[in-house]
Amino acid sequence: MFSLFDQEYNLKSEEITGEKFGTIRDLDMVLNSDACKGSEVNFSKENVLMLESDEVKVHNITQNSLIVDEFSRNDVWPSDENEKPRD
Questions:
Q1: How confident is the model at residue 2, as a pLDDT?
Q2: How confident is the model at residue 63, as a pLDDT?
Q3: Buried-state track 21-40, b at ≥16 Cβ within 10 A, e below 16
Q4: Which pLDDT value is given to residue 31?
Q5: CA 74 to CA 61: how far, in whole Å?
Q6: Domains of the chain: which residue ranges?
Q7: pTM for this entry
Q8: Is the distance from CB of 53 to CB of 70 less than 8 angstroms?
Q9: Full 3-state SS string of 11-42
Q10: Cα separation of 68 and 49, whole Å?
Q11: Which distant-in-sequence residues (6+ apart) come within 8 Å of 71 by Cβ?
Q12: Residue 20: is its pLDDT beyond 80?
């Protein structure tokens, strides 16, 4: 399964992020989501990997995280079919 989880699956965490409205990912919320619970796979902390471009976002779940370089839509899906993704 591949799914995107928005702000609703984050915890407020000003003390970790240093930002007034800072948040970090909440893996327990993700695992209890309809997307995970409704799947035939039994998702758990043993078989879930979160991809994130902001290391502080996965402060509490580093063992389940892979930090990737930030990218935009055009990096993976060019708007012009003749255009190639950037390296």
A1: 78
A2: 93
A3: ebbbbbbeebbebeebeeee
A4: 93
A5: 29
A6: 7-76
A7: 0.68
A8: yes
A9: EECHHHHCCCCCEEECHHHHHCCHHHHCCCCC
A10: 12
A11: 53
A12: yes
